[in-house]
Amino acid sequence: MSTESGKQQRFDRLAGQYATDLYRYAMWICGNDALAKDLVQETFLRAWKALDKLKDSGAVKSWLITILRREYARTFERKVPKFSDIDKVVVEEEQELQPDDRTEVRLLRRGIASLAPKYREPLLMQVVMGYSCQEIADELGISKSAVMTQLFRAREQLKEKLQKDGVTGKVHELF
Amino acid sequence: MNFSEFKIILGAEPRSRDPGFLHARDSDPAFRAAAQKAAEFEDKLEAALLIGAPQELRQRIARIPEQPEAEAEPASRRSWRLLAAAAAVVAALGIAGVAWYESTYHWDSVDDYIVDHWTVDGEQFLELADGEPVDQVTADELFASYGMQLSPALAQRIDILGKCHTPGSSGAHMVISTDQGPVTLIFMPKVETVDGHILAFDHLLAATLQLDRGSAIVIGPSEEIIAPVFAMARDGIRPLARTG
User: Fold this and answer.
1) Distance between alpha carbon B163 and the CA centroid of its chain, in Å?
2) Cβ of A151 and B72 within 8 Å?
3) Strand order in the sheet with B215-220
4) In this structure, are residues A39 and A30 in contact, taking their beta carbons and an 8 Å threshold?
5) pTM listed for this prediction
6) How many CA atoms lie within 13 A of A48 on its CB side?
7) ipTM for the complex?
């Protein structure tokens, strides 16, 4: 097997394994479908160019998310654009849910979109990327206990939002 | 582990496999009930977060190894093009002498690009403006990456600064503070335009400015409002001075 085809296979495996999760992560941090696709595409382009330098295959996920976060940071200096596309994301999974659950999921999505970045990002790393609290702490450069506090608060805020909207298992015709 | 400690871990790591946590969960009905409730909420959270990834994205990623030296085609470029059909465009003057550096998908004209870009990002960037200037070091770094530099007079008026896609390369999208309100300024590193060409669209005016390297677009509600930014950009965006 040639070196080039080996690299191609390695890249294809990476893409197959991580593209979806990276898109989800990107979509939730920037709230814009076109930008999320750009970020993921740029991430994999950089990954392709630097793939030969990556020796530790166990660090791949962290490596990719770091590239994506840096690319996002470079795109927007201080401000985060308003979430614009989160209601338009792929909804076919919703059709499999019961109406009550569908409403809750929609409310949760809006709640997640309105979380402050310091709560949203650790939550995304944990639930979307499967990071442990220690891995999140290492990525964000904060303590594990700070991560746990932020995760706890993120979930509490989301539950409060659901309660505030009166979702208690009844169907609500909101739209 | 007491119940308060248990609930904190439940809130932070509801799927925790920590032995102490699992033991606490299994040893008391109240703990087990709380864990069950947390698991139900977590299922909904996962359902909410785990949105699908578009097939189109996978295809574009798969093409990356085929074009390793080219910049990957941005999704936003295509979506801007699709949105152009919905925009009302009135060309005040024809376009001539536009040179493009494109290897893949491209706009038919600078006017097309202006309308597309504004449709996707124009209003959104304006809404973010809050009158606070961006950090000049950051602005300098971005423009240095294009081989350009900004005058302090221009830099201190940049309220919003972000990278954006322009024909042939990434560029800079800025919102400039003026006494008459925010004005949009877009720098396109690899585009040549007709200097002073005006495009009227969607109750706005866009003026193109040919620079020593690259070009710029100034967008605002009237000529009177965009003229000072036009002049500021001509004087304020220049190639980096060579040393030595």
Assistant:
1) 5
2) no
3) B89-91, B198-201, B204-210, B215-220, B183-188, B169-176, B158-166
4) yes
5) 0.56
6) 25
7) 0.82
